[in-house]
């Protein structure tokens, strides 16, 4: 348990997965050659859950993958002195596919930049879209999410923390006040 301000409870997180699935299915590109790719760490269970919702609503065959962006980050030295690379699992050729990348929160856009670089190492997709549970603003790069479940205004003194059953033991999203603002 934590002392942050709750944005989404367990039911809210579940509803957010449905909202992302609805947005993906309603996209003008359709569902041909659709591949769902989760960015490690919390993007993976989000991708898995949304994929299950989409499968439950349609008979569209979906490709699934896991993307590790660790070595593509521009802040690698700030993240850890010994980064842990968990590995990418892309069991299909991305060339010509409509890739939907999943992440928990979009903030500066730097994770997305790293993910774009990583995914293009595997081929040339027809399109790459971004699906996020929470958009909190404060971009540093010209990046936007195509599919957003929840948008929240924050300050640089706050962080959005997503807790998922598969990683953290329970589902909820909160905003936590930092003692030292981001970027200082």
Mean pLDDT: 90
The CATH class name reads: Alpha Beta
Please identify the structural class as seen in this structure. alpha/beta
What radius of gyration results from the CA coordinates? 16 Å
Widest sheet: strand ordering? 4-3-2-5-6-7
Low-confidence stretches: none
Total helical segments:
5
Named at the architecture level, the CATH assignment is 3-Layer(aba) Sandwich
Biggest pleated sheet: 6 strands, mixed
Global outline: globular
Description:
- This protein is an alpha/beta fold and 184 residues long.
- The protein has one domain: Rossmann fold (3-Layer(aba) Sandwich).
- It is 28% helix and 28% strand.
- It contains 5 helices and 9 strands, in the order E-H-E-H-E-H-E-E-H-E-E-E-H-E.
- It has helices at 10-26, 43-57, 76-79, 110-120, 165-168; strands at 5-8, 34-39, 63-67, 89-90, 98-106, 127-135, 147-151, 158-163, 172-177.
- The strands form 2 sheets. Strands 4-3-2-5-6-7 form a 6-stranded mixed β-sheet, with helices on both faces. Strands 1-9-8 form a 3-stranded antiparallel β-sheet.
- Helix 1 (10-26) packs across helix 2 (43-57).
- The protein is globular, with a radius of gyration of 16 Å.
- 35% of the residues are buried.
- The model has no long low-confidence stretch (mean pLDDT 90).
């Amino acid at each position: 348990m934590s002392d942050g301000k709750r944005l989404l409870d367990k039911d809210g997180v579940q509803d957010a997965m449905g909202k992302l699935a609805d947005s993906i299915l309603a996209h003008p590109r359709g569902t041909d050659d659709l591949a769902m790719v989760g960015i490690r760490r919390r993007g993976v269970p989000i991708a898995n859950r949304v994929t299950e919702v989409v499968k439950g609503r349609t008979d569209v065959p979906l490709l699934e993958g896991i993307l590790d962006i660790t070595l593509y980050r521009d802040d690698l030295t700030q993240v850890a002195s010994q980064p842990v690379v968990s590995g990418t699992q892309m069991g299909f050729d991305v060339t010509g596919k409509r890739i939907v990348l999943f992440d928990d929160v979009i903030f500066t856009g730097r994770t997305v930049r790293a993910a774009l670089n990583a995914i293009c190492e595997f081929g040339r997709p027809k399109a790459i879209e971004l699906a996020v549970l929470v958009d909190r603003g404060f971009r540093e790069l010209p990046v936007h999410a195509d599919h957003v479940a929840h948008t929240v205004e924050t300050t640089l003194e706050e962080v959005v923390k997503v807790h998922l059953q598969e990683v953290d033991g329970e589902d909820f999203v909160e905003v936590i006040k930092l003692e030292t603002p981001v970027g200082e």
